[in-house]
Every structure is written in structure tokens, then in C-alpha cells.
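Why do we bother with holo predictions? Because pocket geometry can differ from the apo form. Keep that in mind while you read this record for magnesium ion.
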Amino acid sequence: MGYKIGDVLVSEEELKNKVRELGKRIAADYHGKELVAVCVLKGAVVFLADLMREIGADVDLRIDFLAVSSYGATTKSSGVVQIQKDLSLDIQGKDVLIVEDILDTGLSLSYIKKLLEERLPASLEICVLLDKPERRTQPVEVKYTGFSIPDEFAIGYGLDVGGQYRHLSAVYIAEPAE
Ligand code: IMP
Ligand code: MG
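The structure, written out:
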């Protein structure tokens, strides 16, 4: 089944303001510290790219990438999480912030959190742009949340359906195309 771009869920302006606000909070919390931001590929790349520039120079920031898969080319979770690309940095003793596009069932983030905890970081927190609380099956503690959204499939600003629409500047509802 194909999808098309539906209504706007979060506008470009709202994204910009929220990312700035999150960046400021993170900058204050990690002021003078060494932080490793772990971007969960591919969905969080756009968010990370904007967020890291809002964090600013008062944080000694490094970035790294992790890829996991829990979805195929559809909007339904397969329920299986696998590592596709691991970190290149050693995070032992480091302050680590996981940066993710969306928290849905919680399966991916609870898996990623457990995986990174085993590597003994000094601290480990989560920052998600979007949250669909209605869909949660695994509880996940998130320190920084952008927007709570209804149970709709979101696309744009990094989020895809079947690999498409990541490059849109706002977040839209993916609508089934007849
Ligand atoms: P969870 O494991 O169910 O929490 O799913 C999280 C992952 O599923 C995210 O990293 C996304 O890649 C994907 N996902 C969940 N909901 C959406 C959505 O509405 N749009 C695009 N991707 C989504
Ligand atoms: Mg993702």
C-alpha cells in the first residue's frame, strides 16, 4: 500500500521553537560536561542536526550513530529489534544522551537503553522529538520530550514510511493512498 502526505501534525515553526527549547535545556544540564549524543539512525538525523546546533559551545559535545531495526516497509511494528550499526565511540564513563525521532511502543528505546547501560556510561538519558503515549507497551523514562502526538503515523523531519518523506521540513500524517 502506498502513502501520501496528509495533514500537518507539527509545523516547521513549532519544530524550530521546540528544538531550540530542548537545546537550551540540554545545554544547561550538561554545561561544562563531556556529552556523547547517540543518534538513532535513520529517523533522528534531522532532529540531531538541528538540536546539536542549539546545544551550543558550552557543552563538549560528540556525536555517534546507532542503527536498529524494528520495522519493515510498513507502519506496523514487527516487534523484533536488531542492531544494524553499532557505535564507534567507547561510552564507558561518559555522559550519554540517546536522541531518537519518536517513542511509539517503547520497544526500540527500552532495548537501546539496556544495550547502552551495559557499557557503563556515567549517565544515560533519552531525548525524543515525538511521543505517542497511547501506543506504549514498554515503559520508558524520557528526560527530554518534544511533542506528544495522537496515534497517527507521522512522516517528515526525518520520519519515513517505507523510506520515503524523511526530507520534509514539517511533520505530517501519512495517509493511505487509494
Ligand atoms: P517503538 O519501538 O515502537 O517505540 O518504535 C520506535 C521506532 O519506530 C521509531 O524509531 C521509528 O523509526 C518507528 N516509528 C514509530 N512510529 C512511527 C511513526 O509514526 N512514523 C515513522 N516512524 C515511526
Ligand atoms: Mg527510528
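The pocket of inosinic acid (ligand 1) is lined by residues 43, 70-71, 77, 100-109, 153-154, 159 (CB under 6 Å).
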